[in-house]
Amino acid sequence: xxxxxxxxxxxxxxxxxxxxxxxxxxxxxxxxxxxxxxxxxxxxxxxxxxxxxxxxxxxxxxxxxxxxxxxxxxxxxxxxxxxxxxxxxxxxxxxxxxxxxxxxxxxxxxxxxxxxxxxxxxxxxxxxxxxxxxxxxxxxxxxxxxxxxxxxxxxxxxxxxxxxxxxxxxxxxxxxxxxxxxxxxxxxx
Length: 189
Fold this sequence. Notes:
By secondary structure, the chain is mostly beta strands. It has one domain: Alpha-ketoglutarate-dependent dioxygenase AlkB-like (Jelly Rolls, Sandwich). The chain contains three helices and twelve strands, in the order βαβββαββββββαββ. It has helices at 24-34, 78-87, 163-166, and strands at 15-18, 40-44, 47-61, 66-69, 95-103, 109-112, 118-126, 130-136, 148-152, 157-160, 168-172, 179-187. The longest helix is centred in the first third of the chain and has 11 residues, at 24-34. The relative contact order is 0.25.
């Protein structure tokens, strides 16, 4: 039974959410694939974040403020790249970057927008839910009532493009269980 508090938030134009995008078996397959990689502490200029990452394809260098070519996306993630590309009716070759992020208990993402060269940002959550927040980029519009919170469930897919990417910032609240985020980005044409 739905109550008044079960009403989904009104999301910015260009933000879409797909619960149960992958199965439990696919989630475990992805997790076991991730275990094969040596994730490194995320560094942003001189700051070390509480999360660990590994990136494939074209990544953004915060220090050099440019795209850098990395290793190709590993074959064991091909089924997910294909599934996401199909969801957005694009060729899987358009996925330019794949980022694996491990969030230990208490880890967050602070308010930000993704790097300018990227067009579509799609993310899949593994092993835990998270509270995903959105707020207008324009500081004059950043009121408490303008902030949108969405529970992003494990195995779900979210996507930001257009206005949701260019005119909104996003962040996540601290997680209470280890969570993995698989993020896929396309480049602007």
